[in-house]
């Protein structure tokens, strides 16, 4: 009974489960169909909406495509029209050119026809002229024969007689004309030469300053004199020995006199004294050091003076050695006239005179500046050569033009003048030297005598330096201690005095002082 009950319960539960399952499936199927239907409806609506939007986009794109097509078509038509216009213009120009060429061809054809007609006409005239010429020659020959019969002379004889008569007449006329021309040329040339020289001198006016043999060194107080003299005069002796200048310390207030015929030595002594006084240390070793430095400074200044001179005169391309020689002329004199000032003046005179005569003023200036470079020789052997020849040789050596070299060598008539530049240099040199107060020949001969006095000492072996001082009344000779002993120094003094006595003419007496100095120098390290 219980078993049946359980079975019935179990069966009811199973049956309920089956019925529930069936009912659930049925309900699920119904819901699924509803969902599918809803999805289909929604999909259908989406498709419709998409179709509608697609149609709208399609219409827009078609409209845009049509507008772009229309725009491109318009641009294409514009390009086509422009191209057609250019083609039309080119065709028009081509037609114009063709018409122009056609007209030119027609003109050329017409001109060629006219030329052919003229050629034919000229040929006809030439034939006519040839015939006339033959007729004239026949008539001329017949007339000559008739004249020969009448005169009794042949044509050649008549011609020779006529030529002889004309020759004698022309010769007398020519001689008269030449004589008149020569007289007129002489008169005109003299007047023109005077005019050119006067104008040149008036345009080049310079002050004349004659160099002397004394320089004045100004000092602040007389106390400096004692320092320059030094203990027992050793400083002043050292300065005189190093520079070759006589230093005169007298009662003249605030001044020391430097006496020497050589302006270079005087300038070295003056600058050295200035440096020593400024520095305050004055002793023999310092004096020799300062003098040597000053000597090098003067050499550099000579080069600078030469450069400034050629720049002032507008002369270019001068060799450095010639520039150095020009600078050295500042410290040389010619008959008491400063050589550089004289050469500058001659250069300016030559430039003006050459310009007046229609010659090259630059070459004239160059030759005028260099005409006296032979007066500043480097060695004693050069002093034996005339300064004009020596200057010409230097100019040739350093690449100057032949006309300049000839002008330098011929300005004192040592060689023949070959160019018009040479007489100009000679005339301007004479003008510069002939100015009132420009030259003093006595001073120049005096300086030459002092130089000769020094040269006598240099002729002996072992001589290092020689200075003529006290206006040539004393000759100081410095010898090399290694080569000359004390006994030889005394003998050398006697020999130099004897040579001066026999070879030179001089007023009064000449004192010969031979100085021999031995130095022992060591350095403590």
**Rg over C-alpha atoms, rounded to the nearest angstrom:** 60 Å
Share in helix: over 70%
How many angstroms does the end-to-end distance come to?
151 Å
- Tally of DSSP helical segments: 14
- Which strands sit side by side, in order, in the main sheet? 1-3-2
- Main beta sheet: strand number and arrangement? 3 strands, antiparallel
Shape: flat
Number of strands: 8
The secondary-structure element order is: HHEHHEEHHHEEHHHHHHEEHE
Q: Runs with pLDDT <50, length 5+?
A: 207-211
Structural class: mainly alpha
Report the β-strand fraction as a percent range: 5-15%
Mean pLDDT: 80
What does this structure look like?
This protein has 525 residues and is mainly alpha-helical. Helices cover 70% and strands 7% of the residues. The chain is built from 14 helices and eight strands. The strands form three sheets. It has a three-stranded antiparallel beta sheet, with helices on one face. Strand 7, helix 14 and strand 8 form a beta-alpha-beta unit. Helix 10 runs antiparallel to helix 11 (402-410). The protein is flat, with a radius of gyration of 60 Å. The relative contact order is 0.05.
């Amino acid at each position: 009974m219980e078993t049946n009950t359980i079975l019935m319960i179990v069966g009811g539960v199973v049956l309920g489960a089956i019925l529930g399952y069936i009912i659930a499936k049925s309900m699920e199927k119904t819901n699924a169909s509803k969902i599918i239907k809803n999805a289909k409806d929604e999909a259908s609506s989406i498709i419709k909406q998409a179709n509608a939007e697609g149609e709208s986009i399609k219409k827009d794109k078609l409209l845009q495509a049509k507008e772009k097509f229309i725009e491109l078509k318009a641009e294409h038509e514009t390009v086509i029209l422009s191209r057609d216009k250019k083609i039309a213009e080119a065709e028009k120009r081509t037609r114009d050119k063709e018409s122009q060429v056609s007209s030119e061809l027609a003109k050329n054809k017409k001109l060629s026809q006219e030329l052919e007609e003229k050629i034919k006409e000229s040929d006809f005239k030439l034939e006519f002229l040839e015939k006339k010429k033959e007729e004239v020659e026949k008539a001329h020959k017949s007339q000559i024969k008739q004249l020969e019969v009448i005169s009794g002379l042949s044509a050649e004889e008549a011609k020779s007689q006529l030529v002889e008569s004309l020759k004698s007449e022309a010769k007398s006329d020519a001689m008269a004309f030449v004589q008149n021309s020569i007289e007129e040329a002489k008169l005109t040339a003299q007047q023109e030469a005077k005019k050119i020289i006067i104008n040149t001198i008036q345009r080049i006016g310079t002050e004349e300053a004659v160099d002397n043999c004394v320089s004045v060194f100004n000092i602040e107080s007389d106390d400096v004199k004692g320092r320059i003299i030094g203990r027992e005069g050793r400083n002043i002796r050292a300065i005189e020995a190093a520079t070759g200048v006589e230093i005169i310390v007298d009662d003249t207030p605030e001044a020391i006199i430097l006496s020497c015929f050589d302006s270079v030595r005087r300038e070295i002594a003056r600058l050295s004294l200035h440096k020593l006084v400024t520095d305050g240390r004055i002793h023999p070793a310092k004096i020799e050091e300062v003098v040597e430095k000053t000597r090098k400074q003067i050499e550099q200044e000579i080069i600078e003076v030469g450069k400034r001179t050629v720049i002032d005169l507008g002369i270019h391309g001068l060799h450095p050695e010639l520039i150095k020689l020009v600078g050295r002329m500042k410290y040389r004199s010619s008959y008491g006239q400063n050589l550089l000032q004289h050469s500058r003046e001659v250069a300016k005179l030559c430039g003006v005179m050459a310009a007046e005569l229609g010659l090259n003023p630059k070459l004239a200036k160059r030759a005028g500046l260099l005409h006296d470079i032979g007066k500043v020789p480097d060695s004693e052997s050069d002093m034996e050569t005339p300064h004009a020849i020596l200057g010409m040789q230097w100019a040739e050596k350093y690449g100057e033009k032949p006309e300049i070299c000839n002008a330098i060598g011929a300005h004192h008539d040592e060689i023949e003048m070959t160019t018009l530049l040479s007489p100009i240099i000679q005339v301007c040199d004479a003008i510069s030297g002939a100015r009132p107060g420009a030259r003093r020949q006595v001073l120049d001969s005096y300086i030459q005598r002092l130089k000769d006095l020094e040269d006598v000492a240099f002729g002996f072996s072992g001589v290092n330096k020689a200075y003529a001082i006290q206006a040539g009344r004393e000759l100081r000779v410095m010898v090399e201690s290694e080569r000359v002993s004390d006994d030889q120094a005394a003998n050398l003094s006697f020999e130099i005095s004897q040579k001066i006595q026999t070879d030179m003419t001089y007023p009064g007496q000449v004192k010969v002082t031979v100085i021999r100095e031995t130095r022992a120098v060591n350095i403590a390290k």
